[in-house]
Write a structure and sequence with these properties.
This protein is an alpha+beta fold. Helix content is 18%, strand content 33%. The chain is globular. The two termini are 29 Å apart.
Length: 478
């Protein structure tokens, strides 16, 4: 693999230069389907649903009904009681995954002939619909990389340990995961730039950011963990030049201006930070751990825990046989959502600058009550049994948009290690609609304002981070 020294331009410009290239020094993506298919023959999972009481290595606590691993590691499924006065549902109980350890989601970057490339992994998870997905260089819980399960060592892990004093750290921040399914779960999102590329092992491939962006438009190809790490890259900033590609309606130019901190925004950053603090203070939510056997409105059968209305999600048991993994066989509980969701940003131009409509969203598993989420984030059928309006005031604006307003529309999975077949329709839709007068939970933000918040923990939820990565993919074409 040839490599030449790169001029040390600002990280944002080097990242942008990589995002422009769909054909890089190492070639294009014409052979990607064959490479992916060949690896899929070696890296596979065979998943069998089994009764919860038949999960090898897992026990049901006789006093609480909680599901936990016999080692006390990995994670526990317990109950949660939530009081949210003023919410659409003011009180409820639910199962939730408690996984207190911090995992590592890390991507290696390195210049190849002066162009930043990213080392991505073809990785299989038991919950993935299609099996193999493009994943970060390292995607591992602490239990995995400390080898509690006696599995093989995690490749490239050494590049993401003790990094605080190293040069070349492009991103390093702890971020939350799904606050409706995880209780206070965080992972460390890291991008480390090496002076030169390391050899790609079997199942790994160096790609430009533009190539990853192209793959992001392919259904269920780039996994959630890769999307959240990519969203944390210092992608925005001033000085992003035009790329000379046709931009008939000016959308991409408006998007690039949204990433430029010199451009005007509807709300100043100080005002937005004050709004977030206000929403966190005003959101009166009390969360209490309870035994799984004390859930109200949920029932446990031999093979699952389910909501009595068939809503939200089930907790199921699976037995997994895997190839190309650190561990060949295991059993575990998983969350299986009841249907496909819609996760969408509405975007609008103000004075030629694209803005994103974010929702100050309360979820019981968040560490700090509220995080900024997509404009729409819901599985509509889960709310069919509830009185009142649609689960989002903007759902119809998203779903009824004409094709000329839909800028991104792809089915993508949530994390396949804990969630079984959790597919959502990710959309970015341009609108002329404004926030209803007096609505306290929505604000227009520019992309650079969101990117600034992503340098800190617990501001932007994982679904919104995925959509930010999708927005990045539109900088130089879709």
């Amino acid at each position: 693999m040839s490599n030449s020294a790169t001029t040390r331009e600002p990280a944002q410009r080097r990242i942008d230069a990589s995002a422009r290239l769909r054909t890089g020094p190492l070639g294009d993506l014409s052979d990607f389907p064959q490479w992916f298919a060949e690896h899929a023959r070696r890296a596979y999972t065979r998943v069998e649903h089994v009764p919860l009481d038949a999960l090898e290595g897992w026990v049901t606590d006789p006093a609480t009904g909680d599901l936990r691993h016999r080692t006390g590691r990995f994670f526990t499924v317990h109950g949660l009681e939530v009081d949210h006065p003023g919410g659409r549902v003011p009180r409820w109980t639910q199962p939730i995954i408690d996984q207190p350890e911090i995992g590592i989601l890390g991507i290696l970057a390195a210049p190849v002939d002066g162009v930043l490339h990213y080392l991505m992994q073809a990785k299989v998870e038991p919950g993935n619909v299609g099996g193999l997905q493009l994943s970060p260089t390292v995607q591992a819980t602490r239990s995995n990389y400390t080898r509690v399960h006696q599995g093989r060592p995690v490749p490239y892990l050494e590049h993401f340990l003790d990094i605080h004093s190293r040069p070349g750290v492009l991103a390093d921040v702890r971020q939350s995961e799904q606050g409706s399914w995880f209780h206070r779960k965080r992972n460390r999102n890291i991008v480390v730039e090496l002076p030169e590329p390391v050899p790609a092992l079997d199942g790994y491939r160096w790609l430009t950011l533009g190539q990853i962006h192209e793959l992001l438009h392919r259904e269920d190809t780039v996994n959630m963990d890769a999307r959240t790490v990519l969203s944390c890259l210092p992608f925005t900033g001033d000085g992003v030049a035009e790329d000379g590609r046709p931009d008939g309606d000016g959308f991409r130019a408006a998007l690039r201006r949204s990433g430029d901190p010199r451009q005007a925004s509807v709300h100043g950053t100080a005002e937005l930070l004050g709004w977030i603090t206000d929403r966190r203070t005003a959101s009166d939510i009390v969360v209490r751990r309870i035994p799984l056997k004390e859930l109200r409105g949920w029932s446990r059968t031999e093979d699952r825990i389910r909501h009595d209305e068939g809503a939200f999600f089930d907790v199921v048991g699976v037995r997994v046989d895997a190839g190309g993994r650190e561990v060949r066989r295991w059993s575990q509980p998983m969350i299986e959502p009841v249907g496909q969701g819609v996760i969408a940003f509405l975007v609008r131009r103000f004075a030629g600058v694209l803005h994103v409509l974010v929702h100050a969203r309360v979820e019981p598993g968040f560490l700090d009550v509220v995080e900024l989420g997509p404009t729409v984030q819901c599985v509509a059928r889960s709310y069919a049994h509830l009185p009142g309006p649609a689960p989002s005031p903007f759902l119809s604006e998203v779903l009824e948009a004409g094709p000329e307003r839909v800028r991104f529309d792809t089915l993508l999975s949530e994390e396949g290690g804990r969630f079984y077949h959790a597919l959502n329709r990710y959309m970015i839709v341009e609108t002329s609609q404004d926030v209803p007068d007096g609505h306290p939970d929505y604000r227009w933000m520019t992309l650079h304002q969101l990117s600034d918040l992503l340098r800190h923990s617990h501001y932007v939820n994982v679904q919104a981070r995925s959509l930010i990565a999708c927005l990045h993919s539109l900088y130089h074409g879709g």
